[in-house]
Structure formats: C-alpha cells, structure tokens
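TA notes, week 10

Several of you asked for a full example with nothing omitted. So below is the full record: structure tokens for the whole chain, then the designed sequence directly under it. When grading your own attempts, check the secondary structure regions first.
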C-alpha cells in the first residue's frame, strides 16, 4: 500500500511540473498584467512595483524564482487582497473547504452505497449489465484487489442474480440458526 501510494505520488510530480510550467508561461503570454488598471501608474512607481514582484527580470529568471518559491511553499502575495499572502488566504479557507469536502464525500458514499444496493429493483437490465461489467473490471484490478485483501476481505465479482442468491441463502441460513437455537426477539 505504501509502495503504491509512493509510486502514485512520484508519478504526479512530473505532471504537476508540466501544469505549473504551462500555467506560468500562459499567464505571462496573456495580455495585460496584475497592475494594469484604467489609471496609469507613474513610471517610477511602476518600476518599483515590477521590481518588487520580479517582473523586471528576464522571463527565464522569473520562472526559476517562481519555481524556487513554489518549492518552499511561498505562493507570494495576493494581488487582490494586498495585506495577505496567498498561503494565508488558503490557510483561512482550507479548514472550511476540507470540512465541506469530507462531509460531501461521506454523504456521497453513504447515499451512493444505499442507492447502489437498492437500485437493482426496476433498473433496466442493460444498465445493470453495464454497471456489472464495470464493477467486475474494477474488482479484477490488482491494486484494488490488494487493497481490499489487506483490509481483510476477499473481493469477488458476481452478477446481480448471483448476489441475490447469496443474500437469499444468507437470510435462510440466519433464519435456520435462529430456529435451531430457539432465539426469540425481546
């Protein structure tokens, strides 16, 4: 599991590098700038602002400075909220976003699981067959199987009819056990 997570993390690094590089150069190629407005700044003020944000340096040097700061987690000052850095703004919003995201995910998993179990009745057979093929392909993935087995379960795919038979057999077995031991509801 740790090796898998490490492989996925290391595989994401080149992707992030490409995205960061594209975003940097696309922003530099876009017309205008963060300090353009209807009112022109005096030339000396504009020079000072550009120097403060390293916009007076060559593009390659700006890029290297940007990558260096990004590697340290320094996302720079906010252009919109002058008294805050981007990291401070993210820090204030992250707890709320995380709580909202986790709540939404928990609701989606709970509701999705319930609806997935109950949806079979009345669902057209072609849709059930399509869903079943996808589930079977997921259960067959080695990474998924390893993850489930490490959790103590044995992943097994079946058709909806086979699952129905297993559930019916399980209910029958439990009822027989209850009768055999004379269990009564209190």
């Amino acid at each position: 599991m740790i090796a898998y997570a490490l492989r996925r993390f290391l595989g994401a690094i080149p992707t992030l590098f490409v995205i960061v590089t594209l975003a940097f150069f696309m922003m530099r190629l876009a017309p205008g700038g963060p300090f353009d407005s209807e009112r022109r700044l005096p030339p000396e003020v504009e020079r000072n602002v550009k120097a403060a944000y390293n916009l007076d340096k060559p593009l390659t040097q700006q890029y290297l400075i940007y990558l260096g700061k990004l590697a340290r987690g320094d996302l720079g000052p906010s252009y919109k909220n002058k008294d805050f850095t981007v990291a401070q703004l993210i820090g204030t919003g992250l707890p709320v976003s995380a709580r909202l995201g986790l709540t939404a995910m928990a609701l989606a998993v709970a509701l999705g699981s319930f609806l997935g179990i109950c949806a079979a009745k009345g669902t057209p057979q072609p849709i059930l067959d399509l869903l079943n093929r996808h589930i079977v392909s997921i259960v067959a993935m080695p990474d998924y199987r390893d993850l489930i087995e490490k959790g103590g379960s044995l992943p097994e795919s079946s058709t909806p009819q086979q699952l129905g038979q297993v559930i019916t057999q399980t209910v029958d077995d439990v009822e027989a056990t209850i009768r055999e031991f004379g269990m009564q509801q209190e």
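The two ends are 45 Å apart (CA to CA). Use that as a sanity check on your answer.
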